[in-house]
Amino acid sequence: MTDIAFPSEVVTKSLLRLIRVPGVDRQVALITLDNGFDHKKPNTFGPGGLASLSEAIDQALAAEPAFIAITGKPYVFSVGADLTGVPLLETHAQALELGRLGHRVFARLKDSTVPTFAFINGAAMGGGLELALHCHYRTLSSGAAALALPEVSLGLVPGWGGTQLLPNLIGPANAATVIIQNPLTQNRMLKPKQATEMGIADLLLEPADFLERSLAWAAGVVGGTVTVERPQVDRDSWDGVLYFAKAMLDKRLHGAVPAANRALELIGVAKGASFAEGTALEDQALADLIFSDELRSGLYAFDLVQRRAKKPVGAPSSVHAKDVTKVGVVGAGLMASQLALLFARRLQVPVVLTDLDQERVDKGVAYVHAEIDKAVGKGRMDTGTAAKVRALVTGSVDRSVFADADFVIEAVFEELSVKKQVWAELEKIVSPEAVLATNTSSLSVTEMAADLEHPERVVGFHFFNPVAVLPLLEIIRGEQTSDAALATAFAVGKQLRKSCVLVKDAPAFVANRVLVRFLSEIQSAIDAGTPLEVADSAIDPLGLPMRPLALLQLVGPAIAYHVTETLHAAFPDRFPLSANLKALADARLPLLVDDEVNPAVTALLTVGDAPLSADEVRQKVLDGLAEEIRTLLDDGVVAEAQDVDLCMILGAGWPFHLGGITPYLDRTGTSEAVTGRRFLPKGTASLA
Fold first, then answer.
1. What are the TM regions of this chain, as residue ranges (predicted)?
2. What do you get for the CA distance between the two ends of the chain, in Å?
3. Which helix (H) or strand (E) holds 29?
4. Fewer CB in 10 Å around end: N or C, the chain?
5. Residue 472 belongs to what H/E stretch?
6. Under DSSP, is residue 68 helix (H, G, I), strand (E, B) or coil?
7. What is the CA radius of gyration of the chain?
8. Residue 81 DSSP code
């Protein structure tokens, strides 16, 4: 079929069965995609998998069935192309042929004179969703965990028909959301109900009898007793939608993600071009982007998130984790309340909040109950689960309720003396085996535990806000933290469905330390006299999720200054204290008003007379990041540069096209210019 081969491909077989379905007088061809593994290794398509599908379609058509239906193995339809083989492509012609191969096979379902159906029983992403779009009709299981076209997040475009079929099915605005906006928003997935409401699926069914009901519905469609109605796509507003989308892209990314612009162009083509013309342009875009540094960085980042994050480097493997049957949360503020809800939902064990007075405790518990009610209202939690989780979370002003807790986490004011006092009081209450976790964002775990009788059971457990959204959990090992406490921390982190990274006890740990260095370089440029607008826009070419001032406003100048003080005490040369940042913290002014710099902020600053250009600011920031990351690695704060990138992707939302940050620093030459060497071997996350 083709001379392209992926040596490492786990071939997804297309298994054909001819079955009888009531309501039709001929056999039905049911093709099941199955790579022979369970749901932990999803179905993907490489050249071998595409060949198998084409052969199954041949066999199905030869049987002259009433209809052809495609479904997947349990929990998984297909998650798209086999990305392991993409870096092996050596020529533009090979990349072009890979796109054409997928189009040739999938188009057989679109062009079939026999009705074709996709029964999307589970995860359908990328090429898997594109396969379903080629079928004439689609049913969808409400249990499908992941629905998306995530290619743009990797530096690609949907290259097997998605940019042409989807906008003509659900309109250009919805298509741009699925193809561009969602991938660039931490790779957001569609919920089955949302996908059905958009029109991606024709029918939403429950998982229990999904296949049986899908077959019966398909028989009704073929037999004429079921009519499928789809709304007409508004073609008059097509160009206007894309004009607006392009303006938003330029404002947000400033050309940093070539794949996003190519995808938008292809959606534009879908308005008037023939399917053959549109898919030919998809082939060209795919081939061009396969040989880009952004794709190599995207694949590197994808591997970090999908593999490294699931097997944390350095996590104890020979020590048994303690079973956690009750959790205590010290504090009842916003962070503590978020933690209580997360622990109750994921661990399904009693969680008790404490604070200084009943009013604060009641407010914390009320927050948890309100969030549960919101989840029910949005269909994210059923009423039975809500009642159970609500009952698990209680509050008290008496810390003796922690006596039988196996895991206690504090989320009190970020002051070392306060935290030490908390642990000193709690050590007299909890059992000697209880693990004590601190959610500190910058303070020393070692110092926090220094005066305790059992300092070995104190561990850093640093979440990122909002707790329910950001997947990173930095697990910090103090100088005396035991393997047993650490093993329990990692086990709990996994139960919380967080991606854990082992971090040595060091000021501000990893993500916050890198972010504060980033903001410090911007602040230094402002202090020198660089206009706020220039300093704020200087980093635009990187395509970060938000500009520096928006980030500073989100974090809060007071918190930023507090963390900077901690870092300044440890590294005064690299983290200077800024009088202007202190003034902003004291003034409590909004830094931005309607996305513009607040004039009152500008008036507040006292600056020098040595302004920098945008290019100079950007290079100063990149140099600072390279220096700080090299220092982190040399000091053994994390095992490898990959862990820094993982922290920045999962804790700060830094994009895949940068690979986190170190691939970008390598390919721009910054790493070698500043530190004398690269962070990653050549070719790891770039073409050269």
1. none
2. 31
3. strand 28-34
4. C
5. strand 472-477
6. strand
7. 27
8. B
Beta bridge partners of 407: 327, 435
Query: HSE on the CB side for 294, CA within 13 Å?
Result: 21
For residue 22, the model assigns a pLDDT of 95
Q: Report the largest interatomic distance among the alpha carbons of the chain, rounded to a whole angstrom.
A: 86
Of 228, 97, 81, nearest in space to 156 by CA: 81
The pLDDT score that the predictor gives to residue 466 is: 86
Using CA atoms, how far apart are residues 147 and 76, in angstroms rounded to an integer? 10
d(CA 609, CA 607): 7
- Helix, strand or coil, per DSSP, at residue 145: coil
**How far is residue 541's CA from residue 537's CA, in Å, rounded to a whole number?**
9
- Phi first, then psi, for residue 189 (nearest 5°) are -95, 155
Residue 494 burial by CB count (10 A; 0-12/13-18/19+): exposed, middle or buried?
Answer: middle
Q: How many residues does the chain have?
A: 688
Distance CA 514, CA 512 (A): 5
- Return the active site residues: 130, 151
The owner of tokens 């003396």 is 417
Q: What is the mean pLDDT of each run of 10 residues along the chain (688 residues)?
A: 74 97 96 94 95 98 98 96 87 93 97 98 97 98 96 95 98 97 92 96 97 98 96 94 94 90 97 96 96 92 93 91 96 94 97 96 96 91 94 96 96 93 94 94 94 96 90 96 97 97 96 96 97 96 93 93 94 96 94 91 94 98 98 97 97 93 96 97 85
DSSP-derived 3-state class of residue 175: helix
Interior CA angle at 16 toward 12 and 21, to 5°?
A: 135
Q: Is there a contact between 283 and 96 (Cβ–Cβ < 8 Å)?
A: yes
DSSP string for 384-442 = HHHHHHHHHEEEES-GGGGTT-SEEEE---S-HHHHHHHHHHHHTTS-TT-EEEE--SS
Nearest Cα neighbor of 261 from 165, 163, 160 is 163
pLDDT of residue 2: 58
**DSSP SS3 for 32:** strand
Query: Dihedral of CA 103/105/106/110: which sign?
Result: positive
pLDDT given at position 687: 81
Rounded CA-CA distance 84/59 in Å is 29
Question: 431 Cβ partners below 8 Å, 6+ apart?
Answer: 403, 404, 406
The dihedrals phi and psi of 403, each to the nearest 5 degrees, come to -55, -35
Tell me what pLDDT residue 409 has.
97
Strands (E), 269-378: 327-330, 351-354
Three-state DSSP state, 302: helix
Tokens representing 358 are 């009943």
Q: Please, which contacts does 460-464 make with residues 24 or more away whose CB atoms are closer than 8 Å?
A: 460/503, 460/505, 460/509, 461/409, 461/437, 461/489, 461/493, 462/503, 462/509, 463/335, 463/338, 463/339, 463/439, 463/498, 464/511, 464/651, 464/652
Helix (H, G, I), strand (E, B) or coil at 140: strand
